[in-house]
Design goal:
single chain, about 325 residues, four-stranded antiparallel β-sheet, about 10% strand, disordered C terminus
Amino acid sequence: MVFVFEKKENGEKYYYLAHNQRISAKKWKSFRKYLGKELPNKTELEKLKKDFVEEFNIPLEKPLAYLDKEKLAKVDYIIGKFHEKIKKYPKIALDKIERDFTIKFTYNTNAIEGNKITLIETAALLNKKITPEGKSLREIYEITNTEKALNYLKGYKGILSKRLILKLHKIMMKNIDDETAGRLRTFDVSIQGANWMPPRGSEVNGKFEEFMDWYSANKNKLHPLELASIIHLKFIEVHPFGDGNGRIARLITNFLLMKNGYPPINIMEKNTIEYVKVLQYAQNTQQFKELCDWFLQKLGENYAETLFPAKKLRK
C-alpha cells in the first residue's frame, strides 16, 4: 500500500509517497517520490497516490483478513529499508546483528516465563560461557537451550510440521525434563493467572492435529504476519506440552516470519502484561484483529528505532 512518509531534517519537514514491495523471501523493492514541504490536500493526495501506483507499476494488493493496510505498508517500508541497509554490510557486521538478536531474544523469551538471568548475564553465558552466580541449573539450561533451538531453526529448510515442533521442544527441555522432552503431554495442566483451561491430556493429540490442519488450510490464504500471529495463539490454546509452550510459540512465530522474508520479532519482557492481555482477549473472543495489529506494531518497533532514529511515519 502507498502511504505518506514524513522526513525531518534540520527542523524542516519533507513529505514523500512511499511503498515497499516484497518480491520474495528476503528480497524487497522500495519506491519513494518527493511531495514537497507541505502535504497536499486529501483530493490531490489521492490523485498523486494513483499516479504513483501507475508510474511504478505497483501490483494490486491482496485483501487482508485482519491487518490494517496502511499500518502494514509502513512496517513493510521499515522492513524493506532494513534489508536494503544490511545487504551492504560485511559478513562480520551481519554476524554481529544476528548475534545481538539471539542474545536479546533468548533473554526476553525466558524472562517472560520468569527466568531471573539478566541480559548481561545472558550475553556472558552465551558468548563467554561464564555461568551466572546464584542461578539454578534449570535457568541456565533454559538460556543455553533457547540459543540451540533458535540456531536449529535458522538452519532448518523444511516446513512447519509436528516433527519440527517436537524437535524444538526436545532441544528446549534437554537437561530440564528429559522424560517429557519432545513428547505431547498426556496429562492435565493448568495455567497460573489464566482465565481459561487448556485441553485435557486425553484431548491433546486431537487438538494438535486440528491445529496442524488449520495451519495447512490457512498458510497460503493469510498474510504472513496474520498467519504468524494467529498460529502463535492457536498453539498456546492447544498447550501441547507440560512446559515450554510460550517459548515454543515464540520460536514458531519467528520461523514463519523468517520463512516469508520478514526478520524475527523480539517480544520484550517489559511488554509481558500487554502481551498476555492481547492473547487472552483473542482467545476469549476469537477475534484476531487486535492480536495481528499488536504483533505488527511490535515488529515495526523492533526495527524502526534503529533505522529511523530521526524520522517519523505519519499516523
